[in-house]
Automatic annotation (TrEMBL):
Residue numbers spanned by region Disordered: 61-87
Keyword terms of this UniProt record: Membrane, Transcription, Transcription regulation, Transmembrane, Transmembrane helix
The UniProt record lists the keyword Secreted: no
One Pfam family it belongs to: zf-HC2
Protein name per the record: Anti-sigma-K factor rskA
TM ranges: 93-114
Length: 221
């Protein structure tokens, strides 16, 4: 059963993703995330929205976009041309007129209704060392989100069907979980693992097998 503390943490995930919690609240949420896969998954789903919101310029939030001048006249003229064509071209339907109007509207309004797509967050490459004697081959990139660190692990050679846990090592020696995955043997796999630890506070990630033996370690910086 989900207790009241769990529910409170879930309600705070949005503010956590935006970096709007106090230091004490952030530490509380981070501690909960370390032991709650469900909340880590929900946080990962919030991440894209949080990144977009972080780029919003609050000074222009209430600005109302203005359609380009002459849009109404352009639509009317296009409709009139389509009506004239209907008289000379058999089979022309009202749907064609509607499509033409839609194209005009999109072409004229697109400049002010669409917003630029924000750039993809930069990645930091990690140097991955694997345990000698294992067939594991791996590379990794790190993405620094406002809510924490994402490890993108590209690998093969992890024993098929075996569970592996990924831990993030902080600069003060603390260790936090970033999730787990199941090995795919010789088949290549791509895993995205999430931790509430910020990139600036992390120094490495480690992959442990079911017996807590370290199979791989990634470092950067």
């Amino acid at each position: 059963m989900i207790g009241p503390e769990h529910a409170e943490i879930r309600h705070a995930l949005g503010l956590y993703a935006l970096g709007r919690l106090s230091a004490e609240e952030t530490q509380t949420v981070r501690g909960h995330l370390d032991g709650c896969p469900a909340c880590r998954g929900e946080l990962a789903e919030l991440a894209p929205t949080a990144e977009l919101l972080a780029r919003v310029d609050l000074r222009h939030l209430e600005d109302s976009p203005t359609p380009p001048s002459g849009l109404g006249r352009a639509v009317q003229e296009r409709v009139a041309r389509e009506r004239r064509r209907r008289r000379t071209v058999p089979g022309r339907t009202v749907a064609a007129v509607a499509a033409a109007v839609a194209l005009v509207a999109l072409g004229g309004v697109g400049g002010w209704s669409l917003r630029p797509v924000p750039p993809v967050p930069p990645t930091t490459p990690a140097q991955v060392e694997t345990r000698p004697g294992t067939p594991v081959v791996a590379s990794a990139e790190l993405i620094d989100h406002t809510w924490g660190l994402e490890v993108v692990l590209d690998a093969q050679g992890f024993d098929e069907g075996e569970r592996y846990e990924v831990l993030v090592v902080e600069d003060d020696g603390d260790v936090s979980t970033a999730g787990a995955f199941v090995g795919t043997g010789s088949r290549e796999m791509l895993c995205r693992l999430n931790s509430g630890v910020l990139l600036r506070d992390a120094v490495a990630f480690e992959v442990l097998d079911s017996e807590d033996v370290r199979v791989a370690r990634g470092t950067w910086g």
